[in-house]
Write a structure and sequence with these properties.
Number of domains: 3
Bound molecules: FE(4)-NI(1)-S(5) cluster, iron/sulfur cluster
Number of strands: 15
Radius of gyration: 24 Å
Strand order of the largest sheet: 12-11-10-13-14-15
Structural class: alpha/beta
Number of helices: 28
CATH class of the largest domain: Alpha Beta
CATH topology of the largest domain: Rossmann fold
Largest sheet: 6 strands, parallel
Length: 672
């Protein structure tokens, strides 16, 4: 499979391809057809266009542009490319930051008794969070602690001096690098504002300095907005543990009211999950001729509710219009981020109602029901009713696919720790040992969007299989999880069928799949805390940098993805993005982001369209890291001595003997 750049590309997902073909045959427009028509401007694509002031836009092109090109103000190509990238980081950090802020305000409302439909589900996690950020917890009422935690997090956004709270959570050495290079974020909003300020006309004219600040704004996302979001979500709705679910455009039911929750923030989605199980609601659906209510998700809202409730996903970003084209969706309820403006247009051809719920995301042609956490369940009921009322309007029209794939999701930091030794000896020792012995060659975070510019989901699928075949443990998030899930890859059987011998042994011993679904895109922060725990455990690197680990976002689309890539780079992880480089016009910027960042932080951000090359670079990084750590050379099928992993049965025996019903997890049946 080749990433064929700007040539028309479809989808690598079978069910999506069926629906797409049906839509194409009727002349329905989708992101795929638009991607065929729209040629990206090569100047803008590679970062060589500046439009931050009205003397321009200035386009620095030609063979001598790097050395001699100047905008009207005199800005060089490296400065222009660096500014473009920094602004993407600022936007991405703003997106995740706003999400984190909303979560913090929800937690505050809960603590103040103003959001009666929410509660603190994971008190233990709340206390753990409180301890990390220095909020006194012992002996205090839960809601008081929750209030102080919420206020402290809210402060993180507007803080002018000092440090974002979670910076202290990173390994000391990693923090040391950040201090040395002045990228410790003060307040999340402050770093976003300064990025915009610095990158206006007549400000910072040093590409390295601009990019360095971009890293600061990115750290404010990874160790700020996103991490806050993940943790508060766990506190309010529960820390995930493995759960069975399904993935596919085929999750919709012919004879039930199908509702899709799409977007990112789980607040409303959690309420809808509760409401669709209410007997009165089910009765109401029956009164309209439906057999019941079927809830599914899309994009990261799907990941959130799948991780905690086993709600099925209809897929990632490029599946949203296709979902409507099944003709089976009564309401697509959207919150924030990655909502295609095209949804209302395609929905006109069907009976599907698009329901917007955030004042930040309004769409002409949609029905708006404003979400408010103070009145959450009533709003959720109103939305579900609206969907049920739409059921009788369903037409025969649509492309009904039926195949679905089983998924195991729900791997939180806490669960991964637990699964390696149980409640009493939870640790990262077995994982570190398996890496040291060469059973596991390394770890890859496979993340980010699915993109209609390549055969959508295809890069994820290719890389996932090749990585596990080569004994690399994969942790997936965001639409990468959706890509793997809708391909049937998120099951333990994958280990038997496709994993290399070392990885397979580890998976069988612990009872896990070789690709672990860690959650939504904000949950990439789970990878940061896991890497931190692995550094603390010993035997590998004593910081995040230097671990045999790589991040890959092979089909990236959004500014959020760029911000994520940069915070991983700053934290010490080499990152490889697929697709053309948004800074490809400048050799100097490319050098800074790869070589200079690697020297300073042991991380990097590469762009490489060819999946085979992405794979080769990944193995190269992992093997060099192993060599630098003086670990056993990786050879397939040959392992060094290591401690024997406890299998599930042995562990259960011990736990039964110790404390009855004390497990934090185990594989739950889907509630659906
Ligand atoms: Ni992440 Fe989740 Fe998907 Fe990309 Fe969009 S849904 S936040 S940005 S497209 S992975
Ligand atoms: Fe052109 Fe400089 Fe204005 Fe950019 S800031 S548009 S390079 S004049």
């Amino acid at each position: 499979m080749k990433n064929n750049g700007h040539k028309p590309a479809k989808t690598a997902n079978k069910e999506a391809a069926i629906v797409l073909e049906w839509g194409d045959s009727r002349g329905y427009e989708t992101c795929f057809t638009r991607a065929e028509k729209m040629k990206p401007c090569p100047i803008g694509e590679s970062g060589a266009c500046c439009k931050v002031c009205h003397m321009g836009p200035c386009r620095l092109v030609g063979t001598k542009a790097e050395e001699e090109g100047r905008g009207i103000c005199g800005a060089t190509l490296p400065v222009i490319a660096a500014r473009n990238l920094a602004r993407m980081v600022a936007a991405g950090t703003a997106c995740h930051g706003d999400h984190g802020r909303d979560m913090a305000f929800t937690l505050l409302a809960v603590a103040e008794g103003e959001a009666k439909d929410f509660k603190i589900k994971d008190v233990k996690k709340l206390y753990r969070v409180a301890e990390i950020i220095g909020v006194a917890a012992e002996g205090r009422p839960v809601l008081d602690v929750a209030k102080d935690v919420a206020l402290k997090f809210i402060e993180d956004f507007g803080r002018q001096r000092g440090e974002v709270s979670y910076v202290r959570r990173a390994p000391k050495k990693t923090q040391g690098r950040w201090k040395k290079w002045d990228i410790v974020p003060r307040g999340i909003d402050r770093e976003i504002a300064e990025t915009l300020d610095r990158t206006t006309m007549g400000m910072d004219a040093d590409a390295d300095s601009i990019l360095n600040h971009a890293l600061k704004a990115a750290v404010a996302n990874g160790w700020g907005g996103s991490m806050i979001s993940t943790d508060i979500t766990d506190v309010l709705f529960g820390t995930p543990s493995p759960v069975k679910a399904e993935a596919s455009l085929g999750i919709f039911k012919d004879d039930e009211v199908n509702i899709v929750i799409h977007g990112h923030e789980p607040n409303l989605a959690e309420m809808i999950v509760d409401v669709v199980y209410e007997p009165e609601m089910i009765e109401y659906a029956k009164s309209k001729g439906a057999k019941g209510i079927n809830l599914g998700g899309m994009c990261c809202t799907a990941n959130e509710v799948m991780m905690r409730h086993g709600i099925p996903t209809a897929g990632g970003f490029t599946n949203q219009e296709l979902g409507i084209m099944t003709g089976l969706i009564e309401a697509m309820v959207v919150d924030v981020q990655c909502i295609m403006p095209a949804l209302t247009e395609v929905s006109k051809k069907f009976h599907t109602k698009i329901v917007t719920t955030s004042s930040k995301v309004r769409m002409p042609g949609a029905t708006h029901v404003q979400f408010d956490e103070h009145n959450a369940k009533d709003i959720a009921r109103e939305i579900v009713k609206l969907a049920i009322d739409n059921y009788p309007n369903r037409k025969a029209e649509g492309s009904h696919v039926t195949e679905t794939f089983p998924v195991i999701a729900g791997f939180s930091h806490e669960y991964i720790e637990y699964m390696q030794g149980g409640r009493w000896r939870a640790s990262f020792r077995p994982l570190n040992d398996a890496i040291m012995a060469g059973r596991i060659r390394g770890v890859v975070g496979l993340a980010g969007c699915d993109n209609p510019r390549v055969p959508s989901t295809g890069m994820h699928k290719f890389l996932a299989i090749e990585l596990i075949k080569n004994d690399v443990l994969v942790v997936s998030t965001g639409c990468s999880s959706a890509s793997c899930g809708t391909a049937g890859f998120l099951t333990p059987e994958m280990a038997m069928e496709n994993a290399g011998p070392g990885l397979r042994e580890v998976c069988e011993a612990i009872g896990i799949p070789p690709i672990l679904h860690l959650g939504s895109c904000v949950d990439n922060t789970r990878i940061l805390t896991i890497a931190t725990a692995m550094a603390a455990e010993g035997g590998l690197s004593d910081e995040i940098g230097g671990m045999p680990a790589v991040g890959i976002a092979p089909e990236f689309i959004t500014e959020k993805a760029i911000s994520i890539g940069c915070y991983f780079a700053a934290s010490g992880v080499p990152v490889i993005f697929g697709g053309e480089s948004p800074v490809g016009a400048s050799r100097e910027v490319t050098r800074i982001m790869t070589e200079v960042w690697f020297e300073r932080f042991k991380g990097a951000l590469h762009f490489e369209p060819d999946p085979e090359k992405i794979l080769a670079m990944t193995f190269d990084y992992i093997d060099k890291a192993r060599e630098a750590l003086k670990l056993r050379k990786y050879e397939p099928g040959k392992f060094g001595a290591e401690r024997v992993l406890m299998d599930m049965a042995a562990r259960r025996e011990i736990e039964k003997a110790a404390v009855p019903h004390a497990g934090v997890g185990g594989i739950n049946e889907s509630e659906n």
